[in-house]
Write a structure and sequence with these properties.
Two copies of one chain form a homodimer.
Chain A: H1 15-29, H2 32-35, E1 41-45, E2 48-57, E3 63-64, E4 67-68, H3 69-82, E5 87-98, H4 103-119, E6 123-132, E7 140-149, E8 166-169, H5 175-185, H6 201-211, E9 215-219, H7 225-237, E10 239-244, H8 252-261, E11 275-278, H9 283-291, E12 300-307, E13 312-316, E14 322-325
Parallel strand pairs in A: 5-6, 10-13
Antiparallel strand pairs in A: 1-2, 2-7, 3-4, 5-7, 8-11, 8-12, 9-11, 10-12, 13-14
Helix pairs in contact in A: 3-4, 6-9
Chain lengths: 337, 337
């Protein structure tokens, strides 16, 4: 690994994060569960199969258009469970608070946790709060861990994309990252960008019912964006994924803000989006199910899966060229979730 | 609640923590699971009953005699599950790292996580790493969440202490808190104090087998110490607990350090201690089981449970007096775990 200190890009969700995970964590903690490197782990218990996951949230600012750190912490963990085809059931809530943090803000965050968990029909069953002296943390950090039940017969995973499959997304990309960045930087845009932060469990349940065993992969493109998530899938499945630039849904406000900030929406974090990879025969039913749900009105096919000797992601550009989409390198947006 | 800002004592594990939990968290997130306010939640899934818990670790310094933040994070969550009579199975690991944290230190911490989880026969199945810019956190914070299987028929809980029961502890008190404090403050003591940080799952399993349904309560006296943990039990069970000062095991080095620092070992955090409350008929078998385990050689009876109109904890002092032991008030030792 480069250097001898933790760098911001070790938390980017991109290449440096992968390096940290492989060189430091996997090497020391290796087991069959962790090795899969999926959004959540599948564990078998007597009588049921569970998905289990954890995520810490350090987003700055803690309140942003379309969401806040509390809702985000609930949505993110629900979504990681949903991406295994699990029905999210129980969450834990671990808070690290900075001395001096306003109790009014804490109440607002916890109200948001309560609303988000109620909406998604999950329960917060255990919690923990630590307080550190002023200057030892930045206001509030939240960890949520969660478990969900994986129904018998459900089998989706990032290693399960197959040549011939199509790649579907449920709506526009880049909204969350840009909502946070424009608020943090105080950019005045013509149209305010709202985070897409949302619980995807009902949406993925509908897609699984419609797609059955033909639905092969579910993945939420959070840190590192769509390009990084698809690279992970390509690598784990040993396939090439081809995206068509003309089919990528990007909201006009996100597109202009990206131009202004020099960002590529394909690498920007989403918190209410899901990549679905399905057998082409099942794709129309999956699309119909997605479009029937409020979070899937904009669902569409954005690419396809090919057999390949070297796994990777290709973008067919609007002008007819082809560009390799690597994983995110560098830290594009620190503290984005 | 006093004031409008988070204060250090909101994280003490004592009275102010309780206030925060009741006024802000329970009021907003209330459900049958959270309401129990036990060390971990019991949740029923098809085919099995699970305990589930979370804890964040912000201990300073991160390396201290007898342990470090990595082992502590594993032990703490294992112990919270064990206190429900559960067999800890799977843990998640959420890291928040400060930009610039030495990778050598990170490796040492993760080595320690690996050793501790192997020793206790639990698996880390999922993880997450966030990096925040320099100055937004202090080196490393760790969250561990975990699940464990509760064997059929096991029923222990902090609300289950009954008049006539005896109170047992598996060894000396105050070691963890003093090990961290003396290292943090750079105190040179004649004898170095080592943290008691240890996984208690094998010990509690042995105690449960020996005590059967006569073993009513298991609780680990972490933040807030023995006095605070017993107050919680007294309140939840509606009983009075009487401790005999002469029977409290305190290591001589801890006793002198406490005198030096003006601390009461009854309020100092432990990380490898367990309070067990059992029917007197079953107590000898429980004591024997504890003493047969390396972490229970010093097990002994330290008090008893009485019926009472007003729940609380009393200390019979060495000189024959009686003193009310309240919950911890104020923040005795910030960042102790």
């Amino acid at each position: 690994m480069r250097g001898d200190r933790v760098q911001l890009d070790h938390g980017s969700g991109g290449e440096a994060s992968q390096e940290l995970v492989c060189d430091i964590f996997l090497r020391r903690l290796r087991n069959d569960y962790l090795e899969k490197m999926d959004d959540s782990a599948l564990v078998d218990l007597p009588g049921c199969r569970l998905a289990m996951t954890t995520d810490s949230y350090v987003v700055d600012p803690i309140f942003f258009p379309g969401g806040d750190i509390g809702a985000l912490a609930v949505h993110g963990t629900i979504n990681d469970l949903s991406m295994q085809g699990a029905r999210p059931m129980f969450l834990t809530l671990g808070l690290i608070l900075e001395e001096g943090f306003a109790l009014e803000d804490l109440k607002r965050v916890i109200d948001s946790v309560a609303t988000a968990s109620k909406e998604a029909d999950v329960k917060i069953v255990a919690g923990d709060t630590k307080v550190v002296p002023r200057g030892h943390a930045d206001r509030i950090f939240i960890n949520t861990a969660g478990i969900g039940i994986v129904p018998p017969g459900v089998r989706v995973g990032a290693d399960n994309a197959q040549p011939g499959d199509v790649v579907i997304i449920n709506g526009t990309i880049g909204d969350h990252g840009l909502a946070v960045m424009t608020r943090r930087e105080g950019l005045a845009l013509e149209a305010e960008i709202h985070s897409d932060s949302a619980p995807l469990n009902a949406l993925t349940e509908a897609a699984l019912q419609a797609g059955g065993p033909g639905l092969h992969v579910l993945r939420d493109p959070t840190r590192g964006g769509v390009a990084t998530a698809l690279n992970e899938i390509a690598r784990l499945s040993g396939v090439r994924i081809e995206l068509a630039e003309k089919d990528l849904p990007v909201a006009p406000a996100v597109e202009s803000a990206c131009e202004l900030l020099g960002l590529d929406p394909l690498y920007v974090a989403n918190e209410g989006k899901c990549l679905l990879i399905a057998h082409p025969a099942g794709a129309p039913a999956v699309l119909e199910a997605l479009r029937g749900h409020p979070l899937g009105h904009g669902a569409r096919i954005i690419g396809k899966v090919r057999a390949a000797r070297r796994p990777g992601v290709l973008l067919k550009t609007r002008v007819g060229g082809t560009r390799i989409l690597s994983m995110l390198t560098g830290e594009q947006l620190p503290r984005i979730c």
